[in-house]
Each structure stands twice: as structure tokens, then as C-alpha cells.
Design goal:
Elements: H1 14-45, H2 48-75, H3 78-101, H4 106-127, H5 131-134, H6 140-169, H7 173-190, H8 207-210, H9 212-218, H10 221-237, H11 243-250, H12 254-276, H13 285-305, H14 309-337, H15 343-355, H16 357-372, H17 374-395
Length: 422
């Protein structure tokens, strides 16, 4: 028997409201940091390599902390871990502010970027797994759409706010100060959510237990297909890291224009996420996901070839529209099929595959832009995305026939589920 779809959940739910407002504040702060660091480094160095290394520096702590962060999220109250992660982001924002005021060398800026990576390593398996403890599975899709809407609203406004602050003050000090304040608001919202301690377990610490999330992902082809599709789409098709080059050298629109270019994908994602809060869940979510990644690749190619600000904004807007659908489908699939006692570890693996593919993609984009030019880097990446869609569809054809997500059930982890709560 399949589960019936629940009525759409809204912001009247206190848990969804608190998480949505918190994600707005946290994402706003992170978005301002990203645009300020990008502009500051390119102003100092004038190098595409520097922009690429931002992603690599942020990725290193995630790779090192992925396994312990996921295990902590399954062994302690996730709200507490989320507060810690957000506090680290707050410290990074203050560090960047101090580095700017003191004219510190770029090594200090990169050190703070690494601290951002530490924060995100602990944030993903904790923040992203709180709501599934508080809601019914049939509510996941619409709840994720609301939280995604809030995050995308912040991701849309954050770069614009950051760009305006930089243009108005001539430096990044005010931008970093606002970012730090936003992280404090996120902490306040997290503290309004219930603290849920994990049930006691007699399971012993072991490498097998630590790697349970990786094993779960590897043994579930539908989820593996979804995250592989998003991983390589974002890795190869990410043009965002090169926007300072397009804003300054190709479109010649300055920091304010850079802010709007950074905001355009998030505006598209915000609009699509809001639409998804009102429409029924997709009947063929896997097929829809494949089509959206094709659209993402085509829009990326259009942006790379554009020499018009308005056409560039439109193409970036479309990348956000297509990406929003893919994100909601993938996150909801993860939450529905993953048992709660594994959600922290699975979310950590998912973050490395997806969340940090942006940073690895930034390094790839910076490196190819330095070698072949920014336009060729973006266009070539968009073409590669289309090839990824074809490869994933051929490797995992079951993704095309995947039915409504709310009809799926959690899949027990074969070696541990008998001794764990379900």
C-alpha cells in the first residue's frame, strides 16, 4: 500500500518557520561572505587561479571532517551541532573583517575561507537533518521547498547586498560585519527548535559504523544516481566562481553588477522553489530531474556565449530555476529513504558529493579559465553537463521510471538496522 500525499505544509508550522527564517539569515551571511571574498581576492591578485583556490581551500576541511561530522550528527543532539557550526561561521566572518581592517596578507583570507569550510562540514549533517525528526515523511517535499525558498531568497539578495555594500564603502568591511550579524540570527532561530537527543545505543565505535553512510549511498542506486547527476552537473557547469571575471573584464559592470549576476541564479531558484510549495509532488521526479539538468547545461552555455548583461542575467536565472527542482527532488529522496539513525552520516556524504562540488567546481573553473579563458571554460562545462545526463540515464535507467517520492519507505542499513531504532 502506498502512502497518500499530505496537504501542503506551510510557514504556519513553527518548525518549518523557524528553520526557514534561520536558513534565510545563515545563507544571507554566507552569500555576502562569498561575494566579498571573491571581489577582494580578484582586486588584490587579478588572478583567476586565486578564485579557483577559494573552492579548493574550502573543500579540504570538508574532506577531512566528513566522517566525524556525520557520526557526531547521529550521536548527539543535531541542534547543538548546528549551533556550533553556525558559531564557527560567525568567527570566520569576524576574522575576514579583521583581516580587511588590518590589510592582512591573502594567506589570512584563505585561512578564514578554510574556517568557512569547517563550518559547512558540520552544518550539513546537522542542519539538514533536524526537520526530518520533527515532521512526517509525507511533509518532507513541501517543507524542503519552503526551506529552499528561504535559502534561495537569501542567496538571491545576499550577493546584491554584498555588492552594494562594497560599492558604497569601497571595501569589504561592512559586508563582513553584516554577514556576522546574520549568523547570530541563525543561531537564535536554531535555539527555538526542540533539542532531540538520539536514543541510547550499545553499538560500538568502529570504522564500519563510521562508514555506514557511505555504504548506504553506494548500495542504493537511485540515490547514487541522483547525487552523481548533481555532482558532475555542478562540478562541470558551475560558472559562478568566474563571475568576478565576467563582471569586471567581459561585461564591465563592476561590483554592483557582480552582485546582480551572483543573485540571478538564486532568484530563479527562489521562484521555482515557491512554485514547488504549491504544486503536487512530481509523479516522475527522476525524469524531471534529468530534464532540468539538461536545461541547466544549455543555460550555462548561453551564459558563456553572452556579451549582454541582460542575456547573461536571464541565462543565470534559468540555471537557478532548473537547479531548484533538482535540489528539492534529491533532498526529499535522501530524507524519505534514509533511516533516521543514519541521516547524519548520509547527509555528510551527500554534502561532499553535492554541497562541496560547488567549491571543487570553483577550482576546476578557475584552473580551466586560467588555461583556456573564462568563456571557453564556461561553454565547455555546459557541454560536458549534457554528456553527464546521457551517461547517468544510460547507467541508471531506473531513475527515469522513479515514482512519487512520498510512496517510498526508509531502507534499512543491512548490517546495523537490527540493533538501531527505525
Amino acid at each position: 500500500m502506498t502512502a497518500a500525499a499530505a496537504p501542503p505544509i506551510s510557514l504556519s508550522n513553527p518548525y518549518v518557520r523557524a528553520m526557514t527564517l534561520g536558513r534565510i539569515a545563515g545563507t544571507l551571511g554566507l552569500s555576502i561572505i562569498v561575494v566579498a571574498v571573491g571581489w577582494q581576492l580578484y582586486e588584490i591578485t587579478g588572478s583567476a587561479w586565486a578564485l579557483g583556490f577559494v573552492g579548493a581551500v574550502e573543500l579540504v576541511p570538508v574532506l577531512l571532517l566528513m566522517i566525524p561530522a556525520g557520526n557526531l550528527a547521529d550521536r548527539m543532539a543535531r541542534r547543538s551541532l548546528a549551533v556550533f557550526a553556525t558559531a564557527v561561521m560567525f568567527v570566520a566572518a569576524l576574522g575576514l573583517l579583521a583581516a580587511t581592517l588590518l590589510n592582512a596578507p591573502t594567506a589570512v583570507i584563505f585561512a578564514m575561507v578554510a574556517l568557512v569550510g569547517v563550518s559547512r562540514a558540520f552544518s550539513s549533517p546537522s542542519v539538514g537533518t533536524i526537520l526530518p525528526q520533527l515532521l512526517k515523511p509525507t511533509q518532507f517535499v513541501h517543507a524542503n521547498a519552503w526551506v529552499s525558498s528561504g535559502a534561495q531568497f537569501a542567496a538571491a539578495s545576499g550577493p546584491a547586498v554584498g555588492g552594494i555594500l562594497i560599492a558604497a564603502t569601497g571595501n569589504t568591511v561592512a559586508a563582513y560585519a553584516v554577514a556576522a550579524a546574520c549568523e547570530l540570527v541563525f543561531i537564535a532561530m536554531l535555539l527555538t527548535l526542540p533539542r532531540i537527543d538520539p536514543p541510547p545505543t550499545d553499538a560500538k565505535h568502529s570504522w564500519g559504523e563510521a562508514l555506514a553512510g557511505m555504504r548506504f549511498v553506494w548500495n542504493n542506486p537511485l540515490f547514487l544516481a541522483a547525487i552523481t547527476l548533481d555532482l558532475f552537473a555542478v562540478l562541470l557547469g558551475g560558472a559562478v566562481a568566474l563571475l568576478p571575471i565576467f563582471a569586471k573584464d567581459i561585461l564591465e559592470v563592476g561590483p554592483t553588477g557582480l552582485g546582480w549576476l551572483r543573485a540571478a541564479p538564486a532568484l530563479g531558484a527562489l521562484l521555482m522553489a515557491l512554485i514547488q510549495t504549491r504544486i503536487p509532488p512530481w509523479q516522475r521526479p527522476g525524469f524531471v530531474m534529468l530534464l532540468c539538468v539538461v536545461g541547466f547545461g544549455l543555460a550555462t552555455i548561453g551564459f558563456g556565449l553572452s556579451t549582454s548583461l541582460y542575456l547573461s542575467l536571464f541565462c543565470l536565472f534559468l540555471t537557478g530555476v532548473f537547479d531548484s527542482v533538482s535540489v528539492v527532488v534529491r533532498i526529499s529522496l535522501e530524507q524519505v529513504i534514509t533511516p533516521d539513525h543514519l541521516r547524519g552520516r548520509v547527509s555528510a556524504i551527500n554534502f561532499v558529493f553535492i554541497g562541496m562540488s560547488n567549491e571543487l567546481g570553483a577550482f576546476e573553473s578557475g584552473a580551466t579559465a586560467a588555461l583556456f579563458g573564462a568563456v571557453r571554460s564556461v561553454v565547455g562545462g555546459g557541454i560536458a553537463v549534457l554528456g553527464v545526463v546521457a551517461a547517468v540515464a544510460a547507467k541508471w535507467p531506473q531513475l527515469i521510471t522513479l515514482g512519487p517520492l512520498h510512496t517510498l519507505k526508509p531502507i534499512p542499513e543491512p548490517e546495523q538496522h537490527a540493533n538501531q531504532p527505525t
